[in-house]
Amino acid sequence: MPLDKTENKAVKEVVLDKEKYVLNKLLPEYVSLYRIELNSGKYEILRLVANTNARQIAEKNPHPFVNFDEYTKKYADSFILEEDKEEFLKWHSCRNLKAALNDTEKITYYYHSVSRTGKHSYYEAYAVKGKVDEEQFSIFLGYRNIDSILYKERETQEKLRKALEEARLGNEIIAAIAKTYQYISRIDIKADYFEEIANRDTDHLKFVNSGVLSSNNKKVCRELVAEEYQEAFFRFSDIFTLPERMRNEESIAMEYKMKDGSWHKLRFIEKKRDENGNLTHVLCVIRSISDSKRKEQILIDQVAEAKQDATMKTRFLSNMSHDIRTPMNGIIGMLDLANHYPDDLQMQQKCRDKIMESSRYLVSLVNDILDITKLDTGELIEQELSFDLTEVLNKINTNSQRKALDKGVSYVVDWNRAQLSEIYLTGNPIFLERLLNIVADNAVKFTDSGGSVQVWCGQKFADEKKIVYEFGCPDNGQGMSEEFVEHAFELFSQENKTSRSTYEGSGLGLALAKKLADRMGGTIEIKSRKGVGTTVITTVPFKIGEEKKTIIAPSYDEIKVVGLHALVAEDNELNMEIVSFMLENNGIHVDEAANGLEAVTKFKESAPGYYDVVLMDIMMPELNGWDATREIRSMKRADADSIPIIAMSANAFAEDIINSRFSGMNTHLSKPLEEKKLLKVLRESVGKRREKL
């Protein structure tokens, strides 16, 4: 039989009262609440807690503002930092709120507020749709303080309890606040009965609307909860033990995982107790915590990564201790041996050769370590330079050919696979040279005498602006096992651990090659079989550059250096003694400067053309080599632009060489200096200068 109007009205009031009763408990954190009609901008203050910034405005301005936009502008001028004001006003404008809520039910916004006393607080603005029709577009806008949201769970529950006694807001407001939770139900413990109030996530929370709680819990647990959480979920949701577990608690909660991978937090909230204080009714609320769990997992992963980094550092120091001490012991041993045979020239030469071999290995090791460190920390500067690819490849192949010849290994360029449609490129030629040198050196190093190494370069992709080249290096050397190939790019990876004792490698080369390839946006891949050989394929993208006129470089071997005047800037006394000896031993006059500032002063006070060359250390007190070079180049004198300035640096990083170029230096020499290379660079620098003059 249908209900008459009186009965129908009574039913609606009962439903409304029930919803208000339950949902009003969910308002405790909102310090202010407004009803706003967005078309007109008219607003109504529904809730305004004392001692808040908004309350100050209300007390000082008893008459309402013209519209909500004017109200928020007053608030922003009074309590929002200048740098945040534009964003705050943009979000709160009636027009933007309407646009944002047009296709959704709710939006949130977080902001920073400063009171007149200087107290800083953070708030969440929570806007939800109210009544929307052709004539009006009303919303409810609430604010809550979130300063202690991460550690005030108990305080939140106390506010919920107080909200049950205090809140008397309209049905639209209550329904809007209820959307904080995905699921709400009321439970009668003695009757073992539950009734659903709201379920906004029926895709994940596939519950019946009402029924016997204990049997439904078992079904939900079995069908929806992840197996590893089922036992804990069933114990927690056991309605018969709930009164005892909540004897001294207003609420209890647990987090659990669903079979679909989502995470939820279930909370029982005290609703009613009997005259003896025994719990008889509770609210069951569920909300999604998948986002917070993902953040939690990220933190866990970061901790694990930090532990792994600590382990890697320990391993790094252990390996470095061994790798550095081995050649150092060799140097000390050879010096001691040489002291026992002072008159044996053959033994003296043998000891010097061994010392030189160990010293070069140490320099190579230190360079690799520092390059890897800088690549890991992101300190290397990735400059883009124009270069000729053929010049880079020729330099690499010439060096590798020489090493292969010394070892009796055939080193062949496979011209049948060569395809260089563009040779004038823009990129980082220094990174490329270092990468390909590592690959070629390894191929020669681990190929026995009589074996062969091939290299080739082919085009993999090209368009009008970009080209990707593929560099191959197959050999028929020792090869690697399949197990080791998987770890070949890891730091200190060595399949043959005896290689350290013979200076064959520290296990850093391929790790550095991988980092360089990644840094240039390329790839590096290894295919290898033990006893058969190894093939390394590297791909690197470049921008297509402009062709430069090719000039055949003349030979400067006949340039005489005797009688040249050199200004040497070096702050280390031992290094100064070494370079001065090399120069003076070849008839070159040397003027010494202890730092960059002294070098600039001596050049400035010298007659134009007096100095033929400047050799400049990089890391010096007072003024570093780069800045000293810039000072010299900027001087208004005839020789400031033309005088060759040669960098001398213990650092051989790509960005050091690039920075030397940009500072105005002509070339870059890495320490320890080699006399033949130093003289070769001097002849070229002086010869090129004379050609220009």
Morphology: elongated
Mean of all residue-level pLDDT scores = 81
Helix content: 40-55%
* DSSP strand content: 15-25%
Radius of gyration: 39 Å
Going by helix content, strand content and strand pairing, the class is: alpha+beta
Uncertain runs are: 14-23, 498-503
Count every helix, treating DSSP H or I runs of 4 or more residues as helices.
Answer: 21
Please give the largest β-sheet. Answer: 7 strands, mixed
Terminal CA distance reads 114 Å
Instruction: Tell how many strands the DSSP assignment holds.
Output: 23
Structure characterization notes:
- The protein is of the alpha+beta class and 693 residues long.
- It is 43% helix and 24% strand.
- It contains 21 helices and 23 strands.
- Strands 12, 13, 14, 15, 16, 17 and 18 form a 7-stranded mixed β-sheet that branches.
- A hairpin with a 3-residue loop joins strand 17 (523-529) and strand 18 (533-544).
- The longest helix has 51 residues, at 290-340.
- It is elongated.
- The termini are far apart.
- Residues 14-23 and 498-503 have low confidence and may be disordered.
Could you write a compact summary of the structure shown?
The protein is an alpha+beta fold. Helices cover 43% and strands 24% of the residues. Helix 8 runs antiparallel to helix 9 (227-236), helix 11 runs antiparallel to helix 12 and helix 13 runs parallel beside helix 14.
